[in-house]
Amino acid sequence: MMEETPNGTSLTQGFEPGEMFKNGFTLESIDLIQGGNFREVIGRTVIFLMSACQGQERKRLFPGATVILPPARASKVDENSVHDALAAGIKSLRGTSPDDEERAFLKRSVRVIHCNTLEAADLAELVVRESKGRLVAVADGSKYRDASVSLPVPVGLSGVWTAEDQWVPHVAGLCRRCVAAVRQTGSYAFIHADETPPQNPELEAMLVAIEDCYPCALRTQDDPEEVVVRRAPIWVSWALGGKVDDAVSEIQSLNLKESSQLQLLLQLMCRAGRHDESLALLQQLRPYLDGFTKSNLVQIARIAFKCGDEIAARQMLPRDLVGLDEEMWLEEGLEIATELEDNELIECYDAQLAALFPNSERIRENRDRRLLLNCREVSVHPGHIFTTAGFSARHLEILNAVNMSSPDYEELIEKATKWDREWMELAVICCAMHARTVDKNVAAIQAGSLITSSLLYGRQATQIVLSATRALMLEGGVPPDEREYYRSPLMAAVRFLAQHPEDKDVRASFSRLLSVEACGELGLPVIAVTMLGLISVGVSLAKGQSEPHADPVGRDKKADADATEIALMRCMEWISERGYGEFGVTVVPREIVGIYADQIIRFVSRMMLHVGGIEGQDMDLETMSKMVLVASAVRSYATNERDEDLRLLRLLAGHYTVAGRFQYARNLAEQILVIGQETEVRRRLAWFAYADVYQRCRNPIDALIGLACAFAIDTPVEKEDLWQEVYAVIRVLRDLGMTELASKFLPALKRLIADLGYDPETDSRIVSTELGLRAVEISRLDAQSVSTLIEDIVRACGRTKNKSDVLPLAMLLGQIIRAADERSIAVTMEARKLMKSLVGRVGARESELVEAASSLVPTTHQVVSMFNSVERAMFGGDAATDLEVVGIAARRLLIEPGGLADTGKASTLAVELLADQTMTLSGSPPKITEDWALQYALSLNDEGLDVAFMALNTAGELSVTVVSKGEAKVIEQPKHENSFHRRMHIWLEKYPKAYGLIDAYDGNNEFFSTMETLDVRLPKSEKLLIVAEPLLQQLTANLVVVQPDDGEFEYFYGSKSAVGFVPALSWLSVTRPRARTGKGVYRAWISADSGPDAAGTLDIALARLSGTFEEFGFSVDTNRRLPGDMSDAGLVVVTAHGGLAQEGRYLHSIRDEESLVEPPSALAASLAGVELVILFVCSGGRIDKHPWGNRTVGLPRQLLDKGARAVIASPWPLDVKVTYTWLDPFMNEWNAGATVLQATKVANEVVATRLGDNPQYSLAMSVYGDVLMTK
Questions:
Q1: Do residue 452 and residue 594 come from a single domain?
Q2: DSSP SS3 for 1089
Q3: Which residues of 553-583 are buried (b: 16+ CB within 10 A; e: fewer)?
Q4: Of 135, 165, 1113, 1242, which sees the most CB atoms within 10 A?
Q5: DSSP class of residue 222?
Q6: Nearby residues of 786 by Cβ (< 8 Å), 6 or more positions away
């Protein structure tokens, strides 16, 4: 028998159970011991409690004990380890080791068992079974996972997920289960969690709150792990705030092992997106890998994979999983193994997870995903076949049914329906996947649309629906008169997106589906109809939420207001000390906020409205952003203002758009979607905010997507929020010119504003909305109606109370006065004086905007200032709408010749700003000054290149300015009854496509007659580069008809001059200095056959081009798929068919003569980095203006965005004989050192010589991009 230690002696060093239990313990309760090591905590506590006696008879409380260990495959300790710990416990408590009799007693009295799994429920069952009259000790309690615990997913960029965030909630769940177990048996247990006790007060409170559970924390002084947990969020904040070096310095100053320092730095660099530095740190870490736990190795492998080093990820991912017992890292390992398509690793991780955590959601998701991927038709998509490890009989039954030669989808779905709902959904998604891969797109859409709202498979279903719909559009599977069909799949996708605002990938797929490339001009009307269909369903109003919350009775209002401001300042100081904060992610500690969370949020709301209305002053956006950040950082403590943060962020984003900070506003919209996931109300608010911001950024497609998703969420809405939603609908429809439809929403808007306590007849928001709708129709109004509109605006301005009311009316009045001046309609002096006074009532930024937008002829200084003040867009497509107001002002610089002293400077500047400013640049853009465009054009003159600047003026007439021989001059254009703008649009209805369909035997009359209707005058030039706005980049400059002054016969401009286009001079100025790749390989792709029976057009092209390909050393790819690796090529020739969208515009598809149908963007992606691309593709060189923005659409611009310097192609369908006639002379000139412009001109001349002077052949190939590029 064990003897008790005499009272008063203290032999224990380290953990002292006597101190912990000095006040005893309570049956039907548990203790949770955090920290300390297994040997001390388990060994000493079990011995101490087994020695405890009660009553005069000194009867032992526990005649025996059970120590429960994790499963053997997940445990570092076993029965021997336990008994060694018990023996050590005896020695530490009494000073002497146990003798043989005592060891035998311990063997009999202490039972050691392993839990079968690491599921908390299984452990609790063991506690019930073992605790009847016995002490129960649970070792490694933090390894267990409670299936009922749902962990929040970190959101945002700066969200930090620490180990305690994972184990504490699960241990709390385990403790609750064990308390229930000992209550059932009337016994006692303790749990040991071998973890550093939590630093987060919220997590500590979670453990303390468990009834009949008594947490005990064993801490180590100066524990470096505690320092890391405490400082990690700050390091991440610093890194994201641009102070990564400060974070690195602090980590290096800690008393950590070098391997631990390197691991921390690796994690930090990866979070900061500095992947090159991360990979360098990986190499430094390699010598230390043997000393890391397997969980650490999985984490390191994940970083390697994320940074793009798949080889390192495969090497570092453990294959021997003994000792890998953390659910999170086993799941992560399984995910990496799946991404690596390593079946052996998948089987290892699947087996370990199934044994330890059979209820893991991610193991089920992984098995379902592998099944889904295996349902792809192998003959069509010869991808990786994944292992069926872990598949159930039903998994295999679904797989076998789908992989039959002629699968019956309906039969399989009907059979799975009898199993249960989840199996039915899995069968549906597998059928949809198989149908998609065999191009049964209608079947894929039909199946996928059934389950886009599924919690398990909604995301995959939505992706399949979007992919199948885009394929259907690409192949033209739905006739034009049946396009209503597309509403159904779009609605199914909206249903998913509405509930998942954070899902960027699905949202991006949805936007791509609605893009011009995917569906021509169908995208906007179909999403508009979808949105209108959803809003027509109606909405229920939230009850009693619109009234302001009253302050608590009896509270001193002034003292309360003072305390609120003090709390706000403390919060701002705390965030400032951290150096970085993220909306909706950063949380201020509760002790700083106190009881003032709701008051702080309401104070910030009042400040936002107050500051935004101060006349003659710009809002201090930096200070206001900090205040809104505080409001979002205290939201979690608020009782009433739980969603006001989203409204504040929406308002803040709106102020950023006014300041020209459109990209930052879009960033805020994205952040709102990320943090607006929690409830239906927040999701609707988030989607509406997204729509509101994108409307203000003039992006109608994304605004309509946001509105559709908002209206798809069926939740009660507060009246104020509903007013804002209806107001946004009106604004979007107004911007699209749908004024009649927009007006139908005005009655509802007025009813809501009246319900909110405002007069709908005089409220400035209603009045400015009505006036704005009338202003859209100004081109249709007669002089009297314009004057009446001006009078009504003047009258409305007289009722304005603050800047928020003044700004929209000032913009409106300025634009209408300018329009009146352009039409020579008299404007009263009162209106002009009012206009000047209104400019003084808005802020400096806003006044500049108003003045420039309303000025009949702004100064070049004003226009340049406006351009340079617009924040650069993250994505090129957004730049067109960001610069819309700049474009309006720039166009006004294009006045009649002689109307401006320095016409050359003004017109070259105007055209450059109107050119395609949305291109992807390989370096920093130039700083635009008033004469930058002119000076750059003059520098091109020095290289023998004349530059023509082309754009339409405000009257819709063509303006052409040429910079040649060191001077700029205007080329006067003929006047016609119809404006050039009108003539151009008429021409575009048929051309340039029809030029490729003209038979050479019919002569050239159609070319001359149609181009003469445009009647363009270009300068005489040997080599001409054209800079033009997107509308005019559609012009076939080679076909411009020249009428010589000497009475000679007219001719086509391209027959005597080498002419090419450039997107914008700013693009050229960045591209030309870019280092050349030095790649000299020539490659060609043509999906064709070369056999004796090959008779298709592409087959003929291949046969006739083969000699040239062989002569110049081309490597030729004839596979019937897009070309693979072209990374070593400097020049690529592509021969394929091109198809236009159903409107007869926009290159829509790349095809061969069998089943290949791909979008042009896919071809551009496969040719990324190739410097010169020659397209023998019908209409491959076609440039179209985007229908909803001042930017271009077409394969040439896509190739330039992917790194090409120049593209040579035809804007119309190309005859096959041009390909093999043109290429040989071009290659000879190219290899001889000619520029791409010169070589193209020579090759065109050879075509004219050999095929006759037929422009559809000899003037087809044109250059787009860096025309001075040489080999």
A1: no
A2: coil
A3: eeeeeeeeeebbeebbebbbebbeebbbbbb
A4: 135
A5: T
A6: 778, 816, 819, 820, 823, 825
Q: Which of 48, 40, 178, 63 is nearest to 110 (CA)?
A: 63
Q: Containing domain of residue 1103, as a range?
A: 1075-1265
Tokens for 330, please give them: 């086993």
Q: What is the CA radius of gyration of the chain?
A: 36
How many H helices and E strands in the chain? 56, 25
> Does residue 1007 sit within a domain?
yes
Average pLDDT score over residue span 489-516 = 94
In a shared domain, residues 1135 and 1054:
no
How are beta strands 65-69 and 188-193 bridged, if at all? Answer: unpaired
Q: What mean pLDDT comes out for the span 604-626?
A: 92
1118 CB-contact burial (10 Å; exposed 0-12 / middle 13-18 / buried 19+): middle
Number of structural domains the chain divides into: 6
Structure-token pair, residue 541: 């109003």
Do 1085 and 1058 share a domain, yes or no? no
Per-residue tokens: 1255: 């422009």
Q: Are residues 487 and 429 in the same domain?
A: no
Answer with the one of 1069, 1104, 1124 that is the final residue of a domain. Answer: 1069
Pairing of strands 1184-1185, 1192-1193: antiparallel
Alpha helices by DSSP H, listed for 915-1041, are 932-941, 980-988, 1005-1014
Are 794 and 813 a contacting pair, CB within 8 Å?
A: yes
CB atoms within 10 A of CB 615: 17
Q: What is the pLDDT of residues 238-275, one digit of tens each?
A: 887 778 888 899 999 988 899 999 999 999 999 888 89
Q: Give the pLDDT of residue 2.
A: 36
User: For residue 459, is it within any domain?
Assistant: yes
Most confident of 820-824, 845-849, 1107-1111: 1107-1111
Same domain, 190 and 54: yes
Contact predicate 224/254, CB 8 Å: yes
Give per-residue pLDDT as tens, 1052-1075.
999 999 999 999 999 999 999 999
Q: Which of 649, 699, 698 is closest to 674 using CA atoms?
A: 649
Per-residue pLDDT tens for 268-292? 999 888 899 999 999 999 999 999 9
Distance CA 383, CA 369 (A): 14
Distance, CA of 829 to CA of 834 (rounded, Å): 8
Identify whether 606 is part of a domain: yes
378 confidence band (pLDDT: 50, 70, 90): low
Phi-psi region of 737 (alpha: psi -120 to 50; beta: other; left: phi over 0): left
415 and 475 inside one domain: no
Alpha carbon 92 to chain centroid, angstroms: 59
3-state secondary structure of 656: helix
Written as six digits, the tokens of 973 are 């254009």
What is d(CA 939, CA 963) in angstroms, rounded to the nearest whole number? Answer: 10
Which of 1069, 1103, 1132 marks a domain boundary?
A: 1069
Is 581 within 8 Å of 237 (Cβ atoms)?
yes
Residue 904's Cβ-side half-sphere holds a number of Cα atoms within 13 Å equal to: 15
Residues 6+ apart with CB under 8 A from 950: 911, 958, 959, 960, 1026, 1027, 1028, 1029, 1032, 1035
Residues 904, 906, 912, 917, Cα dihedral to 10°: 170
User: How far is residue 158 from each of residues 11, 505, 901, measured CA to CA in Å?
Assistant: 48, 20, 54
CB 1089 within 8 A of CB 1100: no
Whole-number pLDDT of residue 5: 35
DSSP bridge pairs for 60: 53
Q: What share of the chain is helix, strand, coil (3-state, %, to 5)?
A: 55, 10, 35
Does residue 571 fall inside a structural domain?
yes
Domain harbouring 173, CATH code: 3.40.50
- Classified as helix, coil or strand, 795 is helix
What is the distance between the alpha carbons of residues 138 and 123, in angstroms, rounded to a whole number?
Answer: 9
- Average confidence (pLDDT) over 32-39: 94
Do residues 74 and 88 both lie within one domain?
yes
Joined tokens for residue 975: 């006047």
Q: Same structural domain for residues 1127 and 1166? A: yes
